[in-house]
Specification:
The longest helix has 13 residues. It is globular, with a radius of gyration of 18 Å. With about 160 residues, it is α/β, with parallel strands linked by helices. The protein starts with a strand and ends in a 10-residue tail after the last helix. It is built from 5 helices and 5 strands.
Length: about 160
């Protein structure tokens, strides 16, 4: 996977849950989970790029010895910032981009994407020369309405 660059966008503040990317879920937080998944998928440490606006999040670069990045501008970490702007900013900062064939964006807010899925997606993309991008989707086990408790006073007719 030497030709794969993984960009992990992780801003510090979210609108609904402040600091959610650093909240522990079990033994580790969302950022740690995503970096560990990348390492389990055998992505080289030098090809994992953490894009963030926070020194608190940047600490995980050192902890996992992944590619060193600088902080991104605050304007790229607002609720109106586009993912494409974050990707372009990351690509500008990544050296030797000419050796990269594929770029994966792995948001920390998708913690259920397993390392096996990352490997499988990479191999599918590499095998199919006509494909220029690939998106991971999952069939839900339950319909979303089955998850929410329905109370008579909330039903709309």
């Amino acid at each position: 996977m030497q030709d794969l660059l993984v960009i992990i966008p992780a801003k510090f503040n979210s609108q609904r849950l402040k600091g959610k990317n650093l909240k522990k879920i079990g033994k580790c937080n969302l950022i740690e989970k995503k970096i560990i998944s990348c390492l389990q998928a055998k992505i080289p440490r030098k090809n994992i790029f953490l894009s963030t606006d926070s020194q608190k999040i940047l600490i995980y670069q050192k902890k996992f010895s992944i590619f060193k990045s600088s902080l991104r501008k605050k304007k790229l970490s607002t609720s109106k910032s586009s993912t494409m702007a974050v990707i372009l900013d990351s690509l500008r900062k990544f050296p030797n981009i000419s050796r990269i064939e594929y770029v994966a964006i792995l948001p920390v807010t998708n913690p259920l994407l397993s390392y096996k899925s990352i490997k499988k997606i990479y191999l599918k993309l590499k095998k199919n020369k006509k494909a220029i991008s690939i998106v991971s989707i999952t069939q839900p086990i339950n319909h979303p309405f089955q998850i929410v408790e329905q109370k008579k006073e909330y039903l709309i007719f």
